[in-house]
Design goal:
The protein is an all-alpha fold. The chain has helices at 19-39, 45-52, 56-62, 66-73, 75-90, 94-111, 113-120, 126-149, 161-170, 180-195, 214-218. InterPro entries: Homeodomain-like_sf, HTH-type_TetR-like_transc_reg, HTH_TetR, Tet_transcr_reg_TetR-rel_C_sf, TetR_SbtR-like_C.
């Protein structure tokens, strides 16, 4: 008589992944997010694998391309940004919607260096990205047009100025960490005043200035 030994299969999640595979995937995403946040999205996949304690093959098995990993890491933030853009377009006050979008995007960028890179980079496959980019650009153009028609946004504001804002605001990641958020809020307020058609007497006060010296711009200690 032949006896057959049955080995219990390892537990799986709803997607059919083994529990250890689920843990590996979560560790890869968490590690990638931390590295993207501090170093940008060009971190080598081998570095991500080493920090996550898995092999490079494991990373590529879960995320066949860098774009797939970037998409997963920043999916929630990108979705929130797109949702805010939709809300801004539908806001009865287009200038309020425009301001909220600029303030949110710049605040997220400063929290997470990889966010703006991911926001502007190619996500997932090229076809999906092109469709997504067209949708975002179309919505932003509509918001800009409505704000101009309402007489609140200067007529020479260009869509590409949003990229300029992100590039400039991104430079504040090199500011003293304890002041970076406040500096960004003041900088964004300056920009919004520049974009606005409000007369000087109608402008809201700027957030307070921070006690910085030229040595901060030079990256030197004050006593050097």
């Amino acid at each position: 008589m032949r006896f057959t030994m049955r080995v219990n299969a390892e537990p799986t999640d709803e997607d059919g992944l083994r529990s250890d595979a689920v843990r590996n995937r979560a560790r890869i995403v968490e590690t990638a997010h931390e590295l993207f946040r501090t170093r940008g999205i060009d971190v080598p996949m081998s570095t991500i694998a080493r920090r996550a304690g898995v092999g490079v093959a494991t990373v590529f098995r879960r995320f066949p391309t860098r774009d797939a990993l970037v998409t997963e890491v920043f999916a929630e933030q990108i979705s929130r940004c797109q949702a805010l853009l939709d809300e801004a377009v539908d806001d009865p006050d287009p200038w309020r919607g425009f301001r909220r979008l600029i303030e949110f995007t710049c605040a997220e960028q400063l929290k997470d260096r990889g966010f703006s890179e991911a926001f502007l980079a190619v996500f997932a496959d090229e076809i999906d990205y092109q469709r997504r980019r067209r949708d975002v650009e179309s919505a932003f153009e509509k918001l800009v047009r409505r704000a101009k028609e309402a007489g609140r946004l200067r007529l020479d504001f260009a869509r590409s100025d949003l990229v300029m804002v992100l590039l400039a605001n991104g430079g504040l990641c090199h500011a003293p960490p304890e002041h970076a958020d406040e500096l960004s809020r003041r900088f964004v307020a300056y920009l919004l005043q520049t974009f606005s058609t409000d007369a000087p007497g109608q402008r809201e006060p700027l957030p307070p200035a921070r006690p910085l010296g030229l040595h901060h711009a030079q990256g030197q200690d004050e006593d050097v």
